[in-house]
Amino acid sequence: MTAPLPSPEEQERLQGAAVDVLMQDSGIPSSGDNDQDMGGPDPPGRTREGGDPREAREAAEHMAEEMGEAQIGSVEVGEDGELASRGGADSMEAESPTDPPATDASPPGLVAPATIGPELPPADDPLSRTFRWQIDNFSNMAERKIFSKPSFMVGGYNWRLLIFPRGNNQAEQLSVYLDVADATTLPPGWTKSAHFVLSLINQYDRKLSVRRDTSHQFSARESDWGFTSFMPLQDLYDPSKGFLVNDTVILEAEVNVRVDYWAYDSKKETGYVGLKNQGATCYMNSLLQTLYHIPFFRKAVYHMPTSENELPSSSIPLALQSLFYKLQYTDTSVATKDLTKSFGWDTYDSFLQHDVQELNRVLCEKLEDKMKGTVVEGTIEKLFEGHVMNYIECDNVEYKSTRKESFYDLQLDVKGCRDVYASFDKYVEVERLDGDNKYHAEQHGLQDAKKGVLFVDFPPVLQLQLKRFEYDFVRDTMVKINDRYEFPLELDLDRGDGKYLTPDSDRGVRNLYQLHSVLVHSGGVHGGHYYAFIRPNLTEQWFKFDDERVTKEDVKRALDEQYGGEEELSQTNPGFNHPPFKFTKFSNAYMLVYIRECDQTNILCSVTENDIAQHLRARLKREQDEKERKRKEKAEAHLFTVIKISRDEDLREQIGRDLFFDLVDHERVKSFRVQKQMRFAEFKLEVERDLGIPAAGQRFWLWARRQNHTYRPNRPLNAEEESMTVGQLRDSVSKAHTMDLRLFLEGTPSSPDRPLVPLHERAKDDILLFFKFYDPVAETLKYVGRLFVKLGQKPGDVRGKINEMCGLAHTEEILLFEEIKFEPSVMCEPMDRKITFKGGQLEDGDIVCVQRVPRPGQETVRHPDVPSFLEYVRNRQVVHFRRLEKPKEDAFCLELSKQHTYDDVVGRLAEELGLDDPSKLRLTTHNCYSQQPKPPPIKYRGVDSLTDMLVHYNQSSDILYFEALDIPLPELQRLKTLNITFHNSKAEEVSVHNIRLPKQSTVADVLADLKSKVELSHPKAELRMLQVFYNKIYKIFPLAEQIENINDQYWSIRAEEIPEEEVNMGPQDRAIHVYHFNKDAGGQNQMLQTFGDPFFVVVGETETLAEIKERIKARLEVPDEEFGKWNFAFVALGTPEYLQDSDIVAARFQKRDTWEYYLGLEHADTNPKRVQHNQNRHAYEKPVKIYN
Predict the structure, then answer these.
(1) SS3 of 105, please?
(2) What are phi and psi of 393, to 5 degrees?
(3) Measured distance CA(1020)–CA(985) in Å, rounded
(4) CA angle 819, 820, 826 (to 5 degrees)
(5) Which stretches does DSSP call E strand in 525-565?
(6) CA 1102 → CA 30, 778, 1157, distances in Å?
(7) I need a surface site. Which of 283, 763, 864, 1156 has the fewest CB within 10 A?
(8) Other CB atoms closer than 10 Å to residue 541's CB: what's the count?
(9) Is 137 helix (H, G, I), strand (E, B) or coil?
């Protein structure tokens, strides 16, 4: 029985006790604005008392001490969901005379009230946490508001709950808030974002608890946030509701502090740094973090031999060493571009998401190969290699067949399995070979047998790949398995008296493993995101590595929340009996890494700088110093400005080499980084010290951008400007205040033996011109100097000085051109020697190009004058040509013109290749996004110019692919080329033929042409053409079908003789498909793997399997001993139904017209691949390849 609700008079007295100082704890203003609130759930808000929040809080706490606090205890949630006591004080025994008598005992099933006590701090500060607060003697509390004590730590802040038992200016409502406990002591400007759920626990039925959730950005001004109308007091005090039991209420707060992405420092918060995502490389980042946190692996990588002359972008060992070193010693996230470049990947590969399991296998194989012959040879095998034993054992005779295989990782079934142990049980599950599926034992015939797989040994580091993706035959597509699948923190593979191990396994090795890493895939079959949970030292602290960000996590986040399955949303309106809403969790574990306990000391070894090559440490030290220098410059950028000084020496160095238009590239001139407060006169002294030009002999010109987009010296600095500070000067002359200050410097260095050359006394009518000299024979353009001229002079008046600069005789005739602009087209016009410079509208900074008057015999030069040469330079394009069969390697480069026609381009290419007929060349454009050839190839004269060849979706390229043909391209374009694989009558020999025929030709024409190129079993043999894909026949081409639309790039086109048995088929006979297949070791229920060459076999209406087997055996020429091991099955949609020798085969294929029904020959593939097909990789994905 609970205490009665206080009377209205008592409520008024309690509410008025602190009204003068406590007027702000309401989600709405404390007065005047809440008349319409009828007591229902309100939007979340902060308290709004009139006055200083800190004074109000202190007053409330002082009042609580004066009046005597109610008993308040804090508890945490136990694993079973019960309330766990945190200890308490003895205030419960000292009841006041006005206290009501103790209530009745708790109803059965209720938890006894917890006593007061501080909540024990966690091992490490988490980002999310659940806190419970039990309040006893609730109905007798006189305080207007109560804070939970002690506070609890989440995300670096101390938090507490705040309640108003009688409502915060809402007399009929309970008010509940979340408050930052140390808000008054935090630094100015602090903020913290959090999502939280506040719950009043129903002590009869937890599902009926009242929950309210919201998010808020907490700050000094808004340090508390919550619900003024959390729930009606009438419901709270109703004894039948279950919220107030034994005069006790229980509140719960689930607080999830959100990480500020921009301000978050992974190194500072966790001690670890993340990896940058290049576009879609999260799968690689999660794998690299997992491998890095296996210290034995990291140490082995450090000890791989590399040299200081190598580049990380071209050496996988060096790139991996560099990446691991930066992960270990830098403070910011690490880029992976050098590593992917060392793989041979380009930008396109970085934006393709691959399967993390497949990358793991490919990378480990590549490292295993590169470790051979080094001190770390065998590391991969030592860490990851285990062994299984496949066996078939007969029941009734002494016969057993075994085959030992190695593995680096294990693929475990998820579907139909509750946890990892269930998957291992399924992995070693025994398959019975009996009835129609008996085993043919050597010298014993068909026998009942059992087939299975057991483990010989497990590796120190066990990698478990969870088969989250599988093919759905009903929907004909790949699907993701999001079923709940549990995995333990401690994995015991010796359980069941070693039931997973072979009898002769070494039982002295204890196969007890600790979970080290959980790689998670979040998303669906068509894409998603990867991240990893890792506990590097196998302690209780987990870390989440999500690309650049690393956060601390608890074991629940790393394990429980990655099991997958469905999650149930709790009801927010417990008064309504709605069924709970469930949703599928698309984030779940995809790969698990366990470390064996007995090997932990070796695996989790110490890795120090002594393990790292000296040249690598020196290289990375230089990189870090440069990075620090740039960081410091950036931090101090507001105090400095950059002045870029160009001189005659820069113009001579650049013009004619890689610069032809304008005067200088300002990014390649002398730069001075000076303080903005430096006087310009002081700067001139610094220039004197650096360049040797006396301050008295310096004259600086400002550069200006003209309306035609050229950039020229415009005017010299005046005396007023030279008296300014550098910062003032820059701001006064630069429209964009972020620009550097660019100046042209007149003046020559002086020395004791080289006296100061005085500056030209510039008159009002003087202009400064710059001169370039062009030689049409050598096709060179160079800078020759500058000259002051009078506006009233004519070019002829200064010819002698111009000729002297150009190295010509004073009287030699010359041609002059004014270089006006080059964008969007070249404009370079002849100068009239009879017109003055003023009449020609020349001004300071203009450029004059000079050349000799053409002599007799110079008519054959390619570019006879300056305009034609500049036009050539403007359109010049260096093209990198690559052979189509080697798309990543440049064969050579040619300098062409963007205006070249198709014939010009192939003509130059043929000349380079030494071909007589350019029409036998075919070009293919470059895909700028995939960095691959872009099909289809360019048609003969299908583009107007080279520019059209190099543009792909508004992106310009400088790459073209070529192939040399055996016939002219125009002729080839009228033909259809098919690559056909021909199988002779016994399928012993296979030959590939390129058949070219007119596009209007039919399949019959192809076969007729093929007959002239292959050897037939007899002259009258007939051929047919088949479409084959993944070792299955999908189509027999009709003879009348035209070949123009046949795709031999995606499908394999096969031709073969029609066997005599099919030619002579009776009316009741039929030809059925026959495929070779096998299943993975262990006999697990999964997709069949087809291999080898499919074929047809004719079956009679009453023919048995035994009769057909004899014909198949003779056709394939399989030895008796081997053939006896084969099983025969009727396969429908991937499911085998094994046949007996007495079965009538034709009966199984009645009305079976689909290609997915076939006679399957189950036997071992005689050419097995070491790495099996990854069933988790989506069918549309490009396989992972590491090229280098």
Answers:
(1) coil
(2) -125, 125
(3) 13
(4) 85
(5) 527-534, 542-546, 549-553
(6) 94, 90, 19
(7) 763
(8) 18
(9) coil
Q: Are 261 and 549 in contact (CB under 8 A)?
A: yes
φ/ψ of 1010, rounded to 5, equals -65, -35
> Which residues are bridge partners to 481 per DSSP?
none
User: Strand pairing of 876-883 and 959-964?
Assistant: parallel
One-letter amino acid identity for 596? Answer: R
Catalytic residue status for 893: no
Query: What is the three-class DSSP state of 539?
Result: coil
pLDDT digits (tens, 9 = 90+) for 634-691: 888 788 999 999 999 999 999 998 899 999 999 999 999 999 999 999 999 999 999 9
* Per-residue model confidence as pLDDT tens digits over 106-117: 333 333 333 333
**How does DSSP assign 1117-1168, residue by residue?**
T--HHHHTT-EEEEEETTEEEE--TTSBHHHHTTT--STTEEEEEE---SS-
Phi/psi at 186 (nearest 5 deg)? -75, 155
DSSP per position, 713-738: EEEE--HHHHTSBHHHHHHHH-SSTT
Residues 259-272, buried b or exposed e (16+ Cβ, 10 A)?
Answer: eeeeeeebeebbeb
1125: confidence class by pLDDT, cuts 50, 70, 90 = confident
Distance CA 382, CA 375 (A): 13
CB of 389 closer than 8 Å to CB of 402: yes
Cis status of the peptide bond prior to 150, with omega within 30 of 0:
yes
Residue position matching structure tokens 């009230």: 113
SS3 520: strand
- Cα–Cα distance for residue pair 713/734, rounded to 1 Å: 14
How far CA 1061 is from CA of 397, 985, 1057, 1096, 1181, in Å, comes to 40, 12, 11, 10, 42
d(CA 945, CA 942): 9
> Which value, to the nearest 10 degrees, does the dihedral of the CA atoms of residues 374, 376, 380, 382 take?
130
* Positive or negative: CA dihedral 372, 375, 380, 381: positive
Q: Is 173 helix (H, G, I), strand (E, B) or coil?
A: strand
Catalytic residue list contains 605: no
893 in Cβ contact with 881 (< 8 Å): yes
Cis omega (within 30 of 0) for bond into 188: no
Residue among 59, 239, 214 nearest 143 (CA)? 59
Torsion of CA 79, 80, 82, 88, to 10 degrees: -40
Question: How far apart are the C-alpha atoms of 980 and 1003, rounded to whole Å?
Answer: 12
Q: Are 558 and 542 in contact (CB under 8 A)?
A: yes
Rg (CA), the chain: 42
Helix (H, G, I), strand (E, B) or coil at 552: strand
Q: Which residues pair with 177 in a beta bridge?
A: 162, 226
The length of the chain, given as a count of residues: 1188
Catalytic residue among 195, 387, 529, 1178: 529
| CA–CA dist 720, 684 (Å, integer) | 15
Distance between CA atoms of residues 257 and 269, nearest Å: 14
Under 8 Å between Cβ of 815 and 850: yes
Q: 390 forms bridges with which residues in the sheet? A: 403, 453
Cα 178 to Cα 162: distance, rounded to the nearest angstrom:
6
Residue 526: CB atoms within 10 Å: 10
Alpha carbons 474 and 1032: distance in angstroms, whole number: 19
Tokens standing for residue 499: 């039931």
Residue 461 exposed, middle or buried by CB count within 10 Å (0-12, 13-18, 19+):
buried
Q: Are 190 and 223 a contacting pair, CB within 8 Å? A: no
Tokens 């399928």 correspond to 987
Determine contact, residues 1144/1104, Cβ cutoff 8 Å. yes
Q: Under a CB-based contact definition with an 8 Å cutoff, are residues 363 and 287 in contact?
A: yes
525-572: per-residue pLDDT in tens?
777 889 999 999 999 999 999 999 999 998 988 898 899 988 776 555
Catalytic residue among 282, 417, 828, 928: 282
- The one-character DSSP state at 53 is H
